[in-house]
Amino acid sequence: MQENPPEVLVSEVGPRDGLQSVKAVMPTADKFRWIAALYAAGVREIEVASFVPAKLLPQMADAAAVVRHALTLPGLTVMALVPNVRGAQAALEAGVHKITIPVSASEAHSLANVRKTREQMVEEVRAIVALRNEIAPQVKVEAGLSTAFGCTLQGQVAEDDVVWLAGQVIAAGADESGLSDTTGMANPAQVRRLFQRVRAEIGERTGAAHMHNTRGLGLANCLAAYDVGVRTFDSSLGGLGGCPYAPGASGNVVTEDLVFMFEAMGVCTGVDIDKLLAAREPLRAGLPGEPVYGMLPEAGLPKGWSVA
Amino acid sequence: MQENPPEVLVSEVGPRDGLQSVKAVMPTADKFRWIAALYAAGVREIEVASFVPAKLLPQMADAAAVVRHALTLPGLTVMALVPNVRGAQAALEAGVHKITIPVSASEAHSLANVRKTREQMVEEVRAIVALRNEIAPQVKVEAGLSTAFGCTLQGQVAEDDVVWLAGQVIAAGADESGLSDTTGMANPAQVRRLFQRVRAEIGERTGAAHMHNTRGLGLANCLAAYDVGVRTFDSSLGGLGGCPYAPGASGNVVTEDLVFMFEAMGVCTGVDIDKLLAAREPLRAGLPGEPVYGMLPEAGLPKGWSVA
Predict the structure, then answer these.
(1) B212 part of a folded domain
(2) What whole-number distance in Å separates Cα of residue B47 and Cα of residue B98?
(3) Average pLDDT, integer, range B149-177
(4) Boundaries of each Pyruvate carboxyltransferase domain copy (chains A, B) (predicted)?
(5) What is the CATH number of the domain that holds A140?
(6) Over the stretch A277-288, which tens digit does the pLDDT of each residue have?
(7) Are B265 and A188 an interchain contact pair (Cβ–Cβ within 8 Å)?
(8) B128/B205 Cα distance (integer angstroms)
(9) Taking CB atoms and an 8 Å limit, are B214 and A155 in contact across chains?
(10) What DSSP line would sit under A270-291, residue for residue?
(11) Residue B284 lies inside a defined structural domain of this protein
(12) Does residue B264 belong to the interface with chain A, where contact is any CB pair within 8 Å?
């Protein structure tokens, strides 16, 4: 483990975003093993499940059990995705530390994904915050603005819309709002511009950069976000996952490569790379035959590697 | 074709760096087709060959013929790599516009690669410049500092050594000196720091960033170099190639992904992406069975794509 305090927070989304994107269902015991291995590597925030009807996403049917297991790991922030109040209720009852609500910046994606307009989703955020205030006021609520950098359905998404929506979800009571490149359309100039504009709107409530590597720009976009002050980065071990509702989109940023980039730069993540690589084993074991990505895992650490 | 003048120069190295890294020999006629397709896409600098003994690199036995063909393409800067005076003589006689000399920043790599110390390579640069002055004074001479960011043989390479060597090759008469991440060990913080230091030493004679994607950081490193003023970037169509003398290293930055990154950022490259993708066909045809990489080619251009 590092001696230095982490300067960036790597928020692992594989057990939620990754697992709900593949057809196979990872057995609950394998999820436990995988999450424990990520924790052992020093990962301190994990999106472990989404609370959605098991009929829609059988991969997430064991969400409450996975949350309860993750809560046994000291110092881990246990996150879950919830699309609505019903999901939030279940997540809060399971005891999560943080919930994240996807809110599409693209109207077309919002309607296709949750059959709600963006304004209706802002109202959903408001209702979830009210529920949180009532039954679990210590729980953090994040609104993640999906398709913030472009949409496979409607094409470009106006930056003004994203900035407006960030203001709306914070006004509705969300503790923070991040930006998601759901469709792999972001570029570094846009990432810098948009995060700066959102920060000007909502200040320190600006949340995570959730980047995809669809067109190879994932790490460059994370670097761009880091350059303008973002300090929380979503990624997925082995690059598992993407958004099943955005046709043609795939490929979360690979946690292994992201951690390597920051550590090589001398930016402490608190994550041990060798142990992180070891966490690929339970992922493979729990999802036999599923492709697992990553450039660092293929090449290995450089000769003479030492954290700067 | 773009109306705007290019803001960055994408220097294609595939026909040299790529082809000399694979075992198969691309037939000369296929090299012509591939180079013509790159040119048709708007690429205006191509490293078309290296002038080395055909016994060592049979892939490059047709170097003079390839140069002569490339010289028929108006406005194209025709480059060749030369390791020594003998190679420079052949390249200059063939009529190249620019020669590039690899000079290792790592003493261990220099000795392994060309059996010369770094000081001896600086003398080779001096002798090549003298020859150039005598027989073809209009030709540009670049010294590319290989292993500038780390070495698979000796591990870390001191930044002071790189800055010193850049000063030495310029003092020996090279027109410019770039930095090569031969071994895929560079990180964005190091790229910014080292290019800034080299620029402080040799000013506008600072040359290209030659990055590898060995550990997935290729584009992030190009972005970092761009941020500190670098405007020439080496890359290889389909990510072909690497350095055959650096064990475990592989993977030039993919031209398609690099051009996409810059064009998406609104930085004009002068390259037409659709035509660039079409240039993969003669590459595949000339090297059957060889893997060809690239994220953008897999994902395609985003919906609603237009140059910013």
Answers:
(1) yes
(2) 9
(3) 96
(4) 8-277
(5) 3.20.20.70
(6) 999 999 999 999
(7) yes
(8) 17
(9) no
(10) S--HHHHHHTHHHHHHHSTT--
(11) yes
(12) yes
